[in-house]
Design a protein that fits this description.
This is KaiB domain-containing protein. InterPro entries: KaiB-like, KaiB_domain, Thioredoxin-like_sf. It comes from Thiorhodovibrio frisius. By secondary structure, the protein is an alpha+beta fold. The chain is about 25% helix and about 20% strand. It contains 2 helices and 4 strands; from the N terminus they run βαβββα.
């Protein structure tokens, strides 16, 4: 019997594809988008792409990533897929949940 191959961490130069599922301009959706863009700009070490999907305009898109609550952030690439639900205000928890390589947080002077 052979052991299962070990999973390797995502390559640091691979593009991180993030999908943010929202419901129009609701306060939680707006907060989630703002928190996500700030987090990506400040902490992501890898190149990234954010795709925002408004389920009020495209409800059928929820089926593709099995979205049950909004806002939901899905890391589509690199695989395996990961999800985080909520307004994404806790950046460390979001990064941990998505298993994304980050740059070290800088200390405020």
């Amino acid at each position: 019997m052979s052991a299962a191959p070990a999973m390797s961490p995502p390559e640091s130069n691979a593009v991180v594809l993030l999908r943010l599922y929202v419901a129009g301009q609701s306060p939680k959706s707006v907060a989630a988008y703002g928190n996500l863009t700030r987090l990506c700009e400040q902490r992501l070490a890898a190149p990234y792409r954010i795709e925002v999907i408004d389920l009020l305009e495209n409800p059928e898109r929820a089926r593709e990533d099995q979205i049950l609550a909004i806002p939901t952030l899905v890391r589509r690439q690199p695989e395996p897929m990961r999800r985080v639900i909520g307004d994404l205000s806790d950046g460390d928890r979001v990064l941990l949940g998505l298993d994304i390589p980050v740059t070290p947080a800088t200390a405020n002077p």
